């Protein structure tokens, strides 16, 4: 299957300049911040692909390079075979980007905004497709409303519509459901999933890991500008294995440092809530006894299956990254 997005050995360094050089108008780089470090990805046509990572991992920098808003320091990027630098117009026409930020012109209605966006791609008489997008995103009743009169959730729907007006084969969604209600999330994912079934390639970044787990066939994880995991969603979940024991502790909280064996099983701790790795159900009583022996007061327990959040935390904070990459290679 041919590539929809190909990223080859991409690095991005944002230069820092001394104040003296800036005053002289020179551009000599004295040092720099490396946002991306030798990133390579090959996303096939028709994939629903997830790009995950903590804040500052390099996701936004990579999307900016895909969209032609920033140039890679080294490496090459192509969209549907078009180089994003030497064939900018063709690559940009093949790509629709839904940005994380709410950016809009307050002087136009929703329909006018989408007509203007169509014009950027040389599209005339695009109203039939605009009407279809408006209907699928629940915006028909707002079509003639001014953008500044819309709620935050409605403005985000318009951003999605803007990315789709030129029918791009590749759609990038950068945190599309950040700060939106459950109804919009459901409406958006139903529509995007339908576009994916029609053959559109979807690249999703999100901090809602349950979305990525449900929607994405493959996932790459970025950490400090490097890919630390790349595999199918199912394979990433299989690497976690077992279940998760969620303990709701009493006022004394988790007995940190009292038992090395317990600390090694600790996956996450937030307030009086502790999550432990549970490899087999037969270990449950033993683990509870160890917690009590260490001085922990348990007020409630839950046993949950491992999910993508567990895999993400293991890879970001553990030694699973190299194994994930070795298998993917």
UniProtKB/TrEMBL annotation:
Residue ranges of every copy of the ABC transporter domain listed in the record: 5-249
UniProt-listed Gene3D superfamilies: P-loop containing nucleotide triphosphate hydrolases
Gene Ontology molecular-function annotations: ATP binding; ATP hydrolysis activity
Record's keyword terms, sorted: ATP-binding, Cell membrane, Membrane, Nucleotide-binding, Transport
Keyword Transmembrane helix: no
Keyword Glycoprotein: no
Domain of life: Bacteria
CDD domains attached to this UniProt entry: ABC_subfamily_A
InterPro entries linked: AAA+_ATPase, ABC_transporter-like_ATP-bd, ABC_transporter-like_CS, ABC_transporter_ATP-binding, P-loop_NTPase
Extent of the signal sequence: none
Family annotation (Pfam families): ABC_tran (PF00005)
Transmembrane segments: none
Protein name, per record: ABC-2 type transport system ATP-binding protein
The organism of origin for this protein: Pigmentiphaga kullae
Source organism phylogeny: Bacteria, Pseudomonadati, Pseudomonadota, Betaproteobacteria, Burkholderiales
């Amino acid at each position: 299957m041919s590539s929809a997005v190909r990223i080859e050995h991409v690095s991005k360094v944002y230069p820092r300049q001394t104040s003296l050089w800036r005053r002289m108008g020179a551009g000599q780089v004295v040092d720099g911040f490396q946002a991306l470090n030798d990133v390579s990805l090959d996303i096939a046509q028709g994939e629903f692909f997830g790009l995950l990572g903590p804040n500052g991992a390099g996701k936004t920098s990579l999307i900016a390079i895909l969209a032609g808003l920033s140039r890679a320091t080294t490496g090459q990027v192509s969209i549907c075979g078009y180089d994003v630098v030497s064939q900018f117009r063709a690559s940009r026409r093949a790509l629709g980007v839904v940005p994380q930020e709410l950016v809009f012109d307050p002087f136009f209605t929703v329909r006018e905004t989408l007509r203007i966006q169509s014009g950027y791609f040389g599209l005339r008489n695009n109203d039939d497709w605009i009407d279809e997008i408006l209907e699928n995103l629940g915006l028909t009743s707002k079509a003639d409303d001014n953008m500044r009169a819309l709620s935050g959730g409605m403005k985000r729907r318009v951003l999605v519509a803007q990315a789709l007006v030129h029918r791009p084969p590749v759609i990038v969604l950068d945190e599309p459901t950040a700060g939106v209600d459950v109804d919009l999330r459901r409406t958006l994912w139903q529509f995007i999933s339908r576009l994916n079934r029609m053959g559109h390639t979807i690249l999703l970044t999100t901090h809602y890991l349950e979305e990525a787990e449900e929607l994405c066939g493959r996932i790459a994880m970025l950490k400090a500008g490097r890919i630390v995991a790349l595999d199918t969603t199912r394979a990433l979940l299989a690497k976690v294995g077992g279940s998760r024991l969620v303990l709701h502790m009493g006022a004394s909280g988790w007995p940190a440092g009292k038992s090395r064996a317990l600390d090694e099983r600790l996956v996450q701790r937030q307030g009086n809530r502790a999550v432990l790795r549970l490899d087999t159900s037969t270990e449950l009583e033993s683990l509870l006894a160890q917690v009590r022996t260490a001085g922990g007061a348990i007020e409630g327990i839950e046993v949950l299956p491992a999910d993508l959040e567990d895999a993400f935390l293991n890879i970001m904070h553990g030694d699973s990254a190299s194994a994930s990459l070795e298998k993917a290679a």
